[in-house]
Design brief:
By secondary structure, the chain is α/β, with parallel strands linked by helices. It contains 25 helices and 14 strands. The chain has a 5-stranded parallel beta sheet. The longest helix has 21 residues.
């Protein structure tokens, strides 16, 4: 219950006069959620792609006054969801001033608060705490102890206060009692030792804690949110069954289901300096390819699907991509630039650190797998902008790419180096006859910069569909005829074999 002009209320007596009524945190969340739903307000802002799946499930759980487990692979916004729940709390609530346990002035728990109210009555001082102070998050690790979560006897406190160990005041309360009237989140719950999980039983079922050696019971009022990976949850058996049974709602999260949603998440989460935003322009095609890399990774036979591919892959890749374009711009002493297809080589470091490879992937190597993902993303997006070369080949129809392919077949090659200036970049692409006309035919609404981006995209796409050869150079790429490339590779292999024979 939020009171107007609450900052003027300084004592328990004043709080009572203003009609303050206590309510549990679950009732608080429920009633504030009801108000938002009635007003058609968004309940979980910045959480994208879950509007018709995860968020309704969370709202149902809150209305049912349930503790929650968010079950999903890494990078599915589980922690972000838990943190957004704070916005469903009252902005400020009163506590007994100086209380360790956020004691409700009308329903105190701790000996400190009980003694203070007994001594001062309506003159008991109170203070107001903001909702952001009512959120506690703990990463479950094997070294977490009962004392960390619940509490234990503090010998230093006993010595400094000259109290015997039998006195309740020597207790050092753990994170959970200190989260009374708050949201308490345990991330990666399966990593918590089984004996520690057992200690959570009473808190979830009976809503109280018992600290060893003391006959005290604290009926804590806490909204618990746990996060877990489904592999840990179901296969490793790391969550003990009675604890799993006591968490009332288990909610499954998922990765973005469309490119459009994935793009919105990346644009929202990517941290791009203002200088970079002003000087580096990014076409929608590039954004689509970046998101497609994530989709390809989740389907790749080289990547462990049980581990998942975090949304952080595309966020980091997008940041790296703009950094690649900005570096090139600075090296060429230019004021503005546009992201190129060849700049995608710069996302490899952001990709290799975000994927868990299976045996076949380890054999290929992380950098090669990253290049494969980029290639597949380009191939997947190509047919959205140009006729699908594979379908044309199957139907034995004339191909609009023939003039470009024939030019390379005559022995011509082009080198697209990573750090060439805008002038050299355009000159290189203009040297390919028919390439600009091809782009204008199928993408007639493009401007100058965009035309050259799509000219480059066309070359990359034809290479992915095996109409051209794309070779890695030390400082960039070379495009040439596919057949001549095969002969070149064959000759090199033969020369290597002759050299070995001579040796």
């Amino acid at each position: 219950m939020q009171i107007k002009n609450f900052e003027k209320i300084k004592t328990l007596g004043e709080l009572k006069k203003n009609g303050y009524q206590s309510r549990s945190i679950k009732d608080e969340l429920r009633e504030n959620l009801i108000a938002k739903l009635k007003n058609r307000e968004r309940t979980f802002e910045e959480i994208l792609g879950y509007e018709h799946s995860v968020i309704p499930d969370i709202e149902r759980a809150i209305l049912a006054r349930h503790n929650i487990t968010l079950l999903g692979l890494r990078g599915q916004a589980k922690t972000k969801i838990a943190r957004r729940m704070v916005h469903l709390l009252d902005e400020y609530i009163p506590i007994v001033e100086g209380s360790e346990l956020n004691d409700d002035p009308l329903a105190p728990l701790s000996k400190y608060a009980l003694d203070l109210i007994s001594e001062k009555g309506d003159e008991t001082p109170i203070q107001w705490i903001h909702r952001f102070e009512r959120y506690t998050e703990k990463l479950a690790t094997p070294d977490v102890t009962i004392a960390d979560l619940i509490g234990d006897v503090d010998p230093i406190k006993a010595a400094s206060l000259k109290l015997p160990y039998s006195d309740e005041r020597v207790i050092h309360f753990g994170l959970i009692p200190r989260s009374h009237r708050s949201i308490f989140v345990i991330n990666e719950l399966p990593d918590l030792q089984a004996r520690i999980q057992v200690a959570l039983f009473n808190i979830l079922q009976e809503r109280d804690v018992q600290i060893r050696g003391f006959k005290i019971r604290l009926p804590l009022d806490i909204q618990f949110v746990f996060t877990a990976n489904p592999e840990d949850y179901t296969n490793r058996g790391a969550i003990v069954t009675p604890l799993k049974d006591r968490v009332e709602s288990q909610i499954l999260t998922h990765y973005p289901r469309t490119i459009e949603v994935s793009k919105k998440i990346t644009q929202q989460e990517a941290k791009i300096p203002e200088m970079t935003r002003k000087s580096v322009s990014v076409h929608e095609l590039i954004r689509n390819i970046i998101e497609q890399i994530g989709f390809e990774a989740r389907q790749s036979e080289y990547i462990d699907s049980k581990s998942g591919v975090s949304a952080r892959l595309t966020i980091s890749a997008y940041e790296d991509l703009l950094g690649t374009a900005e570096r090139r711009m600075l090296l060429n002493d230019e004021n503005k630039t546009s992201v190129r297809i060849s700049d995608l080589a710069g996302v490899i470091p952001a990709t290799t650190g975000k994927i868990e490879l299976v045996y076949e992937g380890e054999q290929e190597g992380p950098a090669k797998v990253a290049n494969i993902l980029i290639g597949k993303a380009i191939r997947s997006q190509f047919s959205h902008y140009f006729p699908n070369p594979e379908k044309l080949k199957r139907k034995q129809e004339s191909t609009p790419y023939q003039k470009v392919v024939n030019w390379f077949g005559e022995g011509h090659t082009i080198d697209l180096l990573s750090d060439i200036s805008e002038k050299e970049y355009r000159k290189t692409l203009d040297s390919v006859p028919g390439l600009k006309e091809l782009v204008r035919k199928y993408q007639p609404d493009l401007n100058g910069d965009e035309i050259y981006l799509f000219m480059e995209f066309c070359l990359f796409g034809l290479a992915e569909y095996s109409f051209l050869s794309k070779l890695n150079l030390e400082q960039g790429l070379q495009f040439k005829d596919l057949l001549s490339s095969m002969f070149t590779i064959s000759d090199e292999d033969e020369n290597d074999s002759d050299s070995e024979s001579v040796a």
